[in-house]
């Protein structure tokens, strides 16, 4: 069991090396990828979508007959209650896995938001709207901010999500003056309180981000919302699409309300909302661990480039075959996704293998067990310094797991990527 709470060899190796900003070029990375991997197959894409819909439908049918199945299989109150509990727990887990797969198909992995499933952009948008609305995610609004994330990944002024707190935000003394007692409040946080904050973030964090920009870019005013067409998140020409997303979400909520009226709140709660909450937990797990890691840099000013931002990403085999099969490799091939967001998800594993030799040590992979990696990032990624062009997370003792080389001036961003 000890291996479940240990850092991976890849992670440990990164903590032992000073970080030097990469000077690779996009041309080198693109040249490594065979051209046929850029091709989109409508038939293959529909097959993946159809397979996922069939799994969801099968689980739904099974769940609606769950109690009758239990009565048929076992006799006796104690046995019936035990079997019912096990079967419902199994349904909630697998249904949440499938709902998370809808989210990845709708935008992040099958990349309808990047027009990567079908050759026709309108077809991608229609599918993305349907799939995201089913899990109460405003498709067009999220697509807009997600594209901004791709254009400014780990840029402290431009990125949209999971913005780290700074030393100034926490009102900590300057690093050269800070003493252990200055970090006392961070250190004294009890494991129980930490767990409470994690549960809140895991199950509600994504919706809170959509509703009022929780953990989003602080450059926006309070209560900036994905549901508000006039929000500064959107350009004027994008606001009509935000309205469409809002109408779609309102329609889904109406359908759920009618379902509750026709059956009961308890029925809809256990069939839809419990797996929906768990799906949010998986979504937050995946998206948080993609970029929030003690060994991954953040950039300011002229040290950021599109290539460096794309490399500030960690590939993880989250839940092994479950993540590969049901979540379409969302965590397995995220580096490749950032470089080639228009390539279909089913080709990204090959893309990953093609670019790894070019990226070398700048390809970040981490086989640390998922739940431990989540706890590690949540407890060690406390804040960053308020100044510095290349910074890393610091823990509750004010220590960084990795440092940047002092001669970053000799590793200026390549001119080729400055404007991307």
Automatic annotation (TrEMBL):
One Pfam family per UniProt: FA_desaturase
Alphabetic keyword roster: Membrane, Transmembrane, Transmembrane helix
Transmembrane segments: 53-74, 86-105, 125-142, 241-260
GO MF term set: oxidoreductase activity
InterPro entries: FA_desaturase_dom (IPR005804), Fatty_acid_desaturase (IPR012171)
GO terms (BP aspect): lipid metabolic process
Name of this protein: Fatty acid desaturase domain-containing protein
């Amino acid at each position: 069991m000890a291996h479940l709470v240990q850092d991976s060899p890849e992670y440990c190796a990164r903590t032992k090396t000073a970080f030097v900003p990469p000077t690779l070029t996009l041309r080198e990375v693109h040249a490594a990828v065979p051209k046929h991997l850029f091709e989109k197959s409508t038939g293959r894409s529909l097959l993946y979508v159809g397979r996922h819909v069939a799994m969801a439908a099968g689980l739904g049918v099974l769940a609606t007959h769950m109690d009758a199945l239990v009565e048929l299989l076992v006799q006796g109150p104690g046995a019936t209650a035990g079997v019912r509990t096990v079967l419902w727990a199994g349904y909630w887990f697998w249904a949440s896995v499938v709902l998370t797969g809808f989210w990845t198909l709708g935008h992040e992995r099958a990349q309808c938001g990047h027009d990567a499933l079908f050759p026709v952009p309108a077809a991608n948008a229609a599918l993305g709207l349907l799939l995201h609305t089913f899990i109460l995610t405003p498709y067009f609004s999220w697509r807009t901010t997600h594209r901004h994330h791709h254009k400014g990944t780990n840029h402290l002024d431009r990125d949209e999500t999971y913005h780290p707190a700074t030393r100034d935000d926490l009102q900590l003394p300057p690093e050269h003056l800070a003493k252990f007692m200055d970090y006392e409040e961070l250190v004294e946080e009890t494991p129980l309180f930490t767990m409470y904050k994690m549960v809140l973030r895991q199950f509600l964090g994504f919706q809170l981000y959509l509703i009022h920009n929780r953990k989003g870019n602080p450059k926006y005013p309070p209560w900036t919302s994905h549901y508000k067409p006039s929000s500064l998140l959107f350009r004027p020409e994008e606001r009509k699409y935000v309205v469409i997303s809002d109408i779609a979400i309102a329609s889904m909520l109406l359908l759920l309300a009618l379902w509750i009226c026709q059956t009961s709140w308890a029925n809809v709660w256990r069939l839809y909302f419990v797996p929906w909450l768990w799906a949010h937990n998986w979504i937050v797990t995946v998206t948080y661990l993609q970029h929030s890691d003690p060994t991954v840099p953040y950039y300011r000013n002229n040290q950021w480039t599109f290539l460096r931002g794309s490399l500030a990403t960690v590939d993880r085999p989250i839940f092994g075959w479950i993540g590969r099969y049901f979540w379409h490799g969302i965590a397995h091939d995220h580096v490749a996704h950032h470089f080639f967001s228009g390539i279909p998800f089913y080709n990204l594993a090959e893309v990953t293998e093609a670019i790894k030799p070019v990226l070398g040590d700048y390809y970040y992979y981490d086989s640390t067990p998922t739940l431990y990696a989540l706890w590690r990032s949540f407890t060690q990624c406390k804040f960053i310094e308020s100044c510095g062009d290349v910074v890393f997370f610091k823990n509750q003792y004010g220590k960084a797991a990795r440092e940047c080389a002092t001669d970053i001036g000799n590793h200026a961003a390549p001119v080729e990527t400055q404007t991307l």
